[in-house]
């Protein structure tokens, strides 16, 4: 199969091209790459009844996949996420507690907890974080929410569906990355029950975290896209 042109490829195929080049550099010319995950309880690694399993949460499962694929790379996974936090709270501490880690790639995942404050307030907070990260020079990847089994994931009118649409719009507006976890789980739900991916109603389990990590890794894979 002939290589596709970059215009025909998904955004994930080329958004991190410059970083993928750096990840291949061997010692002593390589440098430390920081992946920073900002959000709520899911990237933090909460499972159920307050128990955490951080190593099996998607930030660390992403690290494992990146390290295996780029064996010469020095990569840090840093979580600035806090259980129970929503985007307004995350935006308030963004410069002092997130950008301080000099992220090469920043992942934002807040929508599960943004439902109480609504889409309009969430938009303001997400845009603030996106703008500050881009001004800093960071690559940004937004995540739509993982499921809450108390909502009908098939409905386009559910709160999580509305917040997912906001996040997609922001990714398109600012030309940043998007991991559409909600759409992926929605498609998955057409063929199998999501309970097998959940540790409780609003927290994914190890299998669910791997599902998200696999989607994130699409941004780090070698691409067949070519520039004309």
From TrEMBL:
<dbReference type="GO" id="GO:0016787">
    <property type="term" value="F:hydrolase activity"/>
</dbReference>
<protein>
    <submittedName>
        <fullName>SGNH/GDSL hydrolase family protein</fullName>
    </submittedName>
</protein>
<keyword id="KW-0378">Hydrolase</keyword>
<dbReference type="InterPro" id="IPR013830">
    <property type="entry name" value="SGNH_hydro"/>
</dbReference>
<dbReference type="InterPro" id="IPR036514">
    <property type="entry name" value="SGNH_hydro_sf"/>
</dbReference>
<feature type="domain" description="SGNH hydrolase-type esterase">
    <location>
        <begin position="39"/>
        <end position="210"/>
    </location>
</feature>
<dbReference type="Pfam" id="PF13472">
    <property type="entry name" value="Lipase_GDSL_2"/>
</dbReference>
<dbReference type="InterPro" id="IPR051532">
    <property type="entry name" value="Ester_Hydrolysis_Enzymes"/>
</dbReference>
